[in-house]
Design brief:
This protein is an alpha+beta fold and 433 residues long. It is built from 19 helices and 12 strands. Helix content is 48%, strand content 10%. Strand 4 and strand 5 (85-90) form a beta hairpin. The chain starts with 6 loop residues before the first strand and ends in a 31-residue tail after the last helix. It binds adenosine-5'-triphosphate and magnesium ion (MG). Magnesium ion (MG) is lined by residues 43-44, 57, 59. Magnesium ion binds at residues 43-44, 57, 59.
Amino acid sequence: MKSPQARIIPRNEHSISRKLISPSALKVMYRLEQAGFKAYLVGGSIRDILLGIQPKDFDIATNAHPEQVHKLFSNSRLIGRRFKLVHVLFGREVIEVATFRASSDKEESPSQRQTADGMLTRDNVYGTIEEDALRRDFTANALYYSATDFNIYDYTNAIEDIEEKQLRLIGDPEERYREDPVRMLRALRFAEKLGFSIESNAEHAISDFAQLMQSVASARLFDEVIKLFVSGCGLNIYFRLKQHTLFEAMFPAVANSLANHDSEGTYDRFIQAGLLNTDKRIKEDKPITPAFLYAVLLWPEVHRLWIQKQSEGLPEFPAMQQAAQAAIESQLSSIMIPKRFLLNMKEIWEMQIRLTKNHGNRGLQIVQLPRFRAGYDFLLLREKAGEIIPGLGDWWTKFQITNPPPEHKRRTERPKSRPSRRKRPPNSQRNSN
Ligand code: ATP
Ligand code: MG
């Protein structure tokens, strides 16, 4: 592909000022420049500042190779195999430094590998800044800012797209989605988060290629799904995922329960209530746990199997255990949910039975249990969705006023992808940058 010419936007024509950039990111850029390399702020941070949004992290692109970057910073580590990166650590802040990469139409080499259906499984062919711009996902994510000359470099007409609130995929949608199907999820997330419209070819292609999601590494998909639902607009993203058949591609068994065993729309209302509740908690800066989120998402299948197994004669508790196991097993083939979360999910589901055993002194024991609070929140959602008749939730609400659950048992863990933290765990299998 022919190298594009940069449109250069000088300091007096844009709103990026060093005051809005993390001092750590500036430090990294200056150190790289002093060592004779080029360094630019790139991607989401520029896009967000131009839109008046506070960036959640700062990514840097450079012509220095990962090993060279690593040598310059004692507080750094090399990560990734498929896609080598350097993380420079400043306390809890992580500045991600990526080397300019060439587009995937170069000949296959040991540094770059593609599967028969076009998916990139290794992507370490270094290139120029122009090539690096073209291999990013959306134009809005392909702007570069230099802290040395204060210019913005635009190789893809990004400034105009940002002004018009257009999410435009760089290159041919089919090819770009085949290389990395996660770009379909990113399209929906950015469109919703930024209030952009997705350019029509890129949007239509999503439904055509939704099934490609099945080829994404299941551990990566776990992280990507969390990012979707902790974005603060999870409910609307859920609607879009269903509209584009991405939901069924990632959650086939749950989608089947929704389509064929939910004539009253109760399961769907339940998921909606759960996601709305998550959106609200994010706005209030309350903790979100991946286990609760996945417990909500899988409930239509767990509940359906639970009812079915009881009708076959199993008592409610073993029926729940078997239903949970079966639902989890079928889900794990597409999304790898870590074991520690699976355990908590099962506890939340089993708590749905425990919460009905509130007679005598049992209530006092139940509020002491580790997943009481999550189970209670879950119960309220089921009532809200009309899956069970209201009443029990209210009973527990009142009971807790005189018998509060122990504070230390409440979970405060946040998923890695919350804005206040760095979203990518070390050595995560990032498909592309
Ligand atoms: P945010 O951090 O707000 O979610 P972001 O745009 O910064 O958004 P990151 O995941 O931090 O997203 O990635 C940084 C940049 O790397 C992106 O702006 C984009 O240029 C590029 N990028 C990330 N993932 C991909 C991908 N799957 N395909 C192509 N480019 C990507
Ligand atoms: Mg980012």
